[in-house]
Amino acid sequence: MRIRHLLLALLALPLLNACVNDGATYEIDNTREHVLSVIREQPYFWENNVELFVIVSRMPACMRRHSAGMGTPATKVEVYQVPSGAFIIKIGKRMYATETQTCESFAKMDAEPVEGMGILKGTFREKNGEWVFVAEKPEETEEK
């Protein structure tokens, strides 16, 4: 009887391992108080999609979690900073504008701004099986 329970538990491990629930953070001022984070959630292993959330935080003043729609586990999320200090979050062809002064603004954009996307700060992506933020090298962060 005990062996049967152990076997059932071992058979369930691959099912639990298939779900995605992770996040990564970009530290804006190299502090943990001023950050942009992206969380991926896949509640069911049989689904190939993940729900993406962007957390905008400037502690202790504000912190908000915004839904950024669906993606796949391989979806990349690019972060651009415009001269005003606001950020453009690019997920495939979708783009959102957000800010860290009040953390409340999270607006879907229909097209790239005529002034340009700003400076690419880095990309959230899967690397070696982990969801990470990969910062752009300083010489590569020219305005696009």
Please provide a written account of the structure:
- This protein is mainly β.
- The protein has one domain.
- 11% of the residues lie in helices and 49% in strands.
- The chain has one helix and ten strands.
- The strands form two sheets. Strands 8-7-6-5-9-10 form a six-stranded antiparallel beta sheet, with no helix packed on it. A four-stranded antiparallel beta sheet has the order 1-2-3-4, with no helix packed on it.
- A hairpin with a 5-residue loop joins strand 5 (77-81) and strand 6.
- The longest helix has 16 residues, at 2-17.
- It is globular.
- The termini are far apart.
- The model has no long low-confidence stretch (mean pLDDT 86).
Straight-line distance between termini: 64 Å
User: What's the overall geometry?
Assistant: globular
Report the helical percentage. Answer: 10-25%
Count of DSSP helices?
1
Structural class: mainly beta
Strand content: over 45%
- The number of distinct β-strands equals 10
Averaging pLDDT over every residue, what do you get? 86
Main sheet makeup: 6 strands, antiparallel
Radius of gyration: 18 Å
How many discrete structural domains? 1
Strands of the widest sheet, in order across it, are: 8-7-6-5-9-10
Q: Could you list the spans in which at least 5 consecutive residues all have pLDDT below 50?
A: none
Which H/E pattern describes the elements?
HEEEEEEEEEE
